[in-house]
Amino acid sequence: MTTLVPEVHRLTGHDVARARRERRRRRALVTGVLGVLVVVVYATSLMVGQTFYGPGEVWAVLRGETVPGASFTVGELRLPRASMAVLTGAAFGLAGVTFQTMLRNPLASPDVIGISSGASAAAVVALVVLELSSTATSVVAILAALATALMIYALAFKDGVVGSRLILIGIGVAAMLDSVVAYVIVRAAQWDLQVAMRWLTGSLNNATWDQVAPLAIAVVVAAPVLLSQARALELLQHGDDSAASLGVPVERTRLLCICTAVVLIAFATAASGPIAFVAFLAGPIAARVVGPGGSLMVPAALVGALLVLTADLAGQFAFDARYPVGVITGVLGAPYLVYLLVRTHRSGGSL
Amino acid sequence: MTDTHSLEVRGVTLGYADRTVVEDLDLALAPGRITCIVGANACGKSTVLRSMARLLKPRGGQVVLDGHDLHALPTKQVARTLGLLPQSPVAPEGIVVADLVARGRHPHQGALARWTREDDEAVAEALELTGTAEIAERSVDELSGGQRQRVWIAMVLAQQTDLLLLDEPTTFLDVAHQVEVLDLLTDLNRARGTTIAMVLHDLNLAARYADRLVALRAGRLHAAGDPADVLTADVVREVFGMESQVVPDPVSGRPIVLPIGRHHVRPTAVSGTAAGVSAASAAGS
Amino acid sequence: MTTLSVDRASTPTATSRRSASARASWVMGGLVLLVLAGVASVAFGVRSVGLDEIVGGVLGSTDTIGEAAVAKRVPRTVLAMLVGAALAVSGAVMQGVTRNPLADPGILGVTTGAALFVVAGIAFFGLASPTSYIWVAIAGAALAASFVYAVGSLGRGGATPLKLALAGAASSAAFTSLISAILLPRIDVMDSFRFWQIGGVGGAQTEKTLQVLPFLAVGALLSLATARGLNSLALGDDLARGLGEHVGRTRLLAAVGAVTLAGAATAVAGPIGFVGLAVPHLCRLLVGVDHRWLLPFSAVLGAALLTTADVVGRLVARPAEVDVGIVTALLGAPVFIAIVRRQKVRAL
Questions:
Q1: Are the C-beta atoms of C96 and C90 separated by less than 8 Å?
Q2: Is the bond preceding residue C319 a cis peptide, omega within 30 degrees?
């Protein structure tokens, strides 16, 4: 062991505390900036559109006054849409980062392992084959997502659940369910393209308050649950054994987190369809921006909200055609994977 | 000085999915001393250690900590008393050494995770003891194997437990680092009275550093006691299926196992086995 | 001095003990199955036909509606057989090249990549001839395979089965989104694409089949030529080199063969998944891991299975048809899950 010369400064508790506080400050700062950005883009999406409404008018509508023209456009169209964007983005971001942390793999996103596919499959069957109402369809979608998650968990259970097996079985289940979705959509050739798109890639068109409300409740209930497990999740990253020896109730934590994350995904998918890649990207982007060593929950939720808000704005106004939000976020997936490749190549090996 | 705790397994049967690895085993750790567990591959040494670390629930028998069933105690209390360094710990990408070591304080922090003076002092001490203070701000990914292992040990040290279980802490380390780690653990034991149990695959290091040596064979206890008593040519043959000569090593006086293979064996070594040992020990001690 | 008796672990598979005659009989069985499947494919379908109509239709006469229906089934059957064989061999080769039991052109995103390139070709370059689709599909398949392999190799441990599957799934999702992005403003292309996307041999025509034949032949030849090399590769790169194998060259040739087969099959029948995964595993159980037997047997069994899946698709939802890609997904995914459950976790 290194023998220290007495004159050399020995590391004290003070030094450790100071370094830690500095790191925490930096993380808090970045998270704050993210929050501000979300507010800014939210406000922008309320103002921008076919008709531009200035901040004053928007503020008036928000306060409950009746402003001719703006009350409808901002109050009934843009406000629910933007709110849904924030809520689904936060929900997908939180669920995504939870899964990625728990399964210790940045590629293990809930939309890749079949849960959103379950919701979509049930939804298209409910809409096309059973011709249920849209509220009933949402309920069906939520139940289906939960059932799918349960089925995947049960199939992966063999003397305990191992992450890799869960992921692979999820991929298999996703393939099955995706084929069901494709079949139903194609068979219903007279189907409204809009609705089909929504269930295939996610769209915020025709967002209404009664779609936003259940999602808002779900987020308000589920988010604190996940946040309370943040520390345990951090420790789970070290491997089940290390985490258990540090006093984390591993199976219980995992079960709680999976259930909560699935609930978030289910409600979000029921509201807007499976917005591609938000759950996948939010966590890694947050990690890059905020840095390692702390909980990624809040940053991931903010990044998710930001992604969906910005993508929806871009989808509506940036191009000649109107694209649903899921297509925009989906297109980001490929460049992100390329970016991962390039960055790793440069840094010489480790992810 | 820490309170000495007693940890033992009584009549324990352990296994995974379809196979039983350990059957009806009794094993007690010597409180305040260093116990090393050795045995051939797949004899159950890691399994026993994991059951003592509360990672594996026994199918039969009990794991007892201070007279209480280990599985009946509250998780955090166990985590404050018992620390484990598993075989291949995983570090999240990009984490800094000081943060990783700080994670070891989790069992001592309540639900609100407030950082107290005590926590910071523990982390600082752990970094100092393992000689990782200079690399405290570096990313764990960039470290060498030896440095990384020291950082993991620092994390377990920060947990400040009275009992420390280590599963093959010296694998992947070169011999200098192996000795460094074992010396560090010995310091800990001498200075604080920490009870240490390790699974080691290197017989000779185990013999040198153990106060108590335990040899397992096919899931059962084969021999336990003082290294000089346990490590004999007969035991080595029975546990490892290998012929050997056991002599006291001139550096520490502890037994050292000299394997006898099919080549490079002098005729005198084989024929006068028993005589050779007594002659050597008479000369060496 | 005691001589140590080394406990030799019992040979895991019966490969060495499998005699050539046992394997030959399995292949014979496969061929019989193939013939039966072919007959069933011609005889059964959405429209029920009588025996004389079957005979007449096969021989080429189209006097009655029944005979015409049968006549249409012939090229469909041929295509199903070719595509099934191609995908099965492609999957077997991919599993050998990546040493990954979960490799399959669908799972690794290769078929989706091929689809993306076809769509891009149609939308941006106005490609129209099936031959150009095939070339473009093969290029897309090759690029997708390289991309997925590169992404799957990131991080510690290299390209483990788990990471490859994840990389494939993520890339597939990305490619699908790109396809949607390209197609959304082009309603004209979208409809025909949606049908093609499911994966079906319903629109088979003899001309199209003839055009894809040379590509399939090249892919098959390349794959078969590397069969011995794949046997060595299975031992690990270092060991293979020590045995005198040109590891890089073998891998490249095999990959080109696999990608050509997958690309060509996708160009003509759309992305069909799980055939490349399930068939080689089944064949390994029966014939062993020697690729010189495995590849041909996979071709035979793949052809038989896909043809059967097509027949099932035609019968199960009369008068509508369930496209064969859906059937293979619904039947193949449980097989995939069963394989995953059987694997030791460390191997994943």
A1: no
A2: yes
Q: Helices A115-124 and A134-156: crossing angle, nearest 10°?
A: 140
> Does pLDDT of C61 surpass 60?
yes
> Given this model, what pLDDT does residue A2 score?
46
Return the C-alpha torsion angle B36, B39, B41, B44, nearest 10: -80
ipTM above 0.90, yes or no: no
CB-based contacts of B146: which residues, under 8 Å, 6+ apart? B173, B174, B177, B180
- Pairwise pLDDT comparison (A338 vs C117), residue with the higher score: C117
Query: What global pTM score does this model have?
Result: 0.80
C1 at interface of B, judged by CB pairs closer than 8 A: yes
What's the mean pLDDT in B242-254? Answer: 91
C175 touches chain A (CB under 8 A): yes
CB contact residues (below 8 A), chain B span 108-127, against chain A = 113, 115, 117, 120-124, 127
The distance from CA C81 to its chain's CA centroid, rounded to whole angstroms, is: 11
B214 pairs with which residues across the strands?
B37, B224
Q: Which tokens belong to A188?
A: 């219903």
Element (H, E) at A4: none
Q: How far is CA C304 from the centre of its chain?
A: 12
What 8-state DSSP symbol labels residue B66? T
To the nearest whole Å, the CA of B177 is away from the closest chain C CA by 23
Give contacts of C2 with chain B, Cβ < 8 Å. 243
Among C1, C3, C4, beta carbon nearest to B270: C1
Query: A303, A335, A268, A283: which is closest to A109 by C-alpha?
Result: A283
Q: Which of B141, B234, B262, B270 to mutate to test the interface with C (most CBs of C within 10 A)?
A: B262
Whether the CB-CB separation of C325 and C271 falls below 8 Å is answered with: yes
Q: What is the mean pLDDT of chain B?
A: 85
pLDDT tens for chain A, residues 1 to 351: 444 444 456 777 788 888 888 888 888 999 999 999 999 999 998 888 878 888 888 888 888 777 777 778 888 888 899 999 999 999 999 999 999 888 887 777 887 788 888 888 888 888 777 877 777 888 888 899 889 988 988 888 876 667 778 888 888 898 889 888 877 776 665 556 566 667 777 888 878 888 888 899 999 999 999 999 988 988 888 888 888 888 888 888 988 998 899 889 888 988 888 888 899 889 888 988 888 777 889 999 999 999 999 999 998 888 877 888 888 888 887 788 777 766 665 544 332
Task: State both tokens at A222.
Answer: 């589920």
CB B65 within 8 A of CB B81: yes
Sheet holding B60-65, edge to edge: B19-28, B7-16, B60-65, B68-69
Contact: B54, A245; criterion CB under 8 Å: yes
On whether any CB of chain C is under 8 Å from the CB of B260, the answer is yes
| Residues sharing a CB contact under 8 Å with residue C70, sequence separation 6 or more, in sequence order | C42, C43, C49, C53, C54, C56, C57, C58
Quote the CA–CA distance of A23 and A291 in Å, as a whole number: 9
Nearest CA in chain A to B186: A1
Report H helices in chain A. 13-47, 55-63, 70, 79-102, 115-124, 134-156, 163-187, 193-201, 209-228, 230-236, 240-245, 250-272, 278-290, 297-317, 325-347
- Cα torsion A60, A66, A70, A73 to 10°: value is 120
